[in-house]
Each structure stands twice: as C-alpha cells, then as structure tokens.
Amino acid sequence: MITQTTVRPSVWIGCLACYNEGVLNGRWFLAEDAGEVTPDDLHQNPTAHDELWIFDHEGLPCGTSEMSPDTAQLGVRSSMRSERNSGLHCSLG
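-> structure tokens emitted (93 positions)
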C-alpha cells in the first residue's frame, strides 16, 4: 500500500533588520500567504522595520534557497497549478 502525504508549503519569515542586529525575529506562515505578510504582522506591533526575508521553508522544491516572501507566494501559486508534476519537495537545513 502506498500512502501519500500532502504538505502545504510553509515558510519562516524573518525581519531582516532584526537579523542584521543579531536578533532572530520571525514566524512560520503558509507560503501561499507569504506575500501578504507585513513587518507589523511579523512583529505583532507597529514597527519601522520594512524588509522581510524567508530564511527557511518546508514543502518547496529541493534546491530552493532563501527568497523574498513575494517570490515564495508566486512560486507556490504557480506550482499549485502544475502540481500534477511529481517534483521532489524538501526543507532547507
């Protein structure tokens, strides 16, 4: 018997300004929603920080590296349309 598991791609979005200051500030989001995440959403408060970056992911194609949230959202939406391809999916790390 073959068991198939569906993985909803997710991404760990972090604040690039915090990262550059030596602080890891981020959270996991569904990749399909990544482009809609704002710095205020990530910080859960208003912030002057304006740049977000994806540092980790699950369920995206192998070989995928760090990227912007917009790139992740577009990539996932494109792959959802052509999911009949049996491409390999993996996590960074």
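Strands lie at 10-15, 26-30, 52-58, 60-61, 89-90.
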